[in-house]
């Protein structure tokens, strides 16, 4: 279902993947610095989640400024929260690469507001860009260290923008409940020599779904 999300005086292109049964939880998903919401990995994940009962809203926001992308993500959260078509108990924010930085930033900002109502249940970071290639000295970890909701990282063990030991170091300092799933030998684009894209996507999708399910159950115990 294609929709337009109001964003300032413009609209963001977006698309819902809707489960057959009425969903109680949703995921808002966005792309990295290049591409858009039709990036194959995002479409694959959205379809997978919807087929298992999780509503998925993908949106496109061009622009390489993280603050701008964060505002766009906030607009998508508000849109889903106020939607009459889908009354959700909670939503998880998810993004690929730069999109996951924007998602982390939204959660940190909303978490600092006094009106945090628990609508946002967690964060999924696909290929989180912890540093620029070959620039490991400057880590983009400030939002991660201030978040308190559960976080899942899915990263390639050969990601040139997220060195394994560095991410493990940041994660060990995080206050939030967190988990890292390493895709063996995958680069930043999640490509693995000798494996098909579909094969890698199946691994990622299954990990994301089982983590979402665990966290929804944990909150309802």
UniProtKB/TrEMBL annotation:
It comes from the Eukaryota. Residues 27-208 form the KANL3/Tex30 alpha/beta hydrolase-like domain. Pfam families: Abhydrolase_11. InterPro entries: AB_hydrolase_fold, KANL3/Tex30_Abhydrolase, NSL3/Tex30. SUPFAM superfamilies: alpha/beta-Hydrolases. This is TEX30 protein.
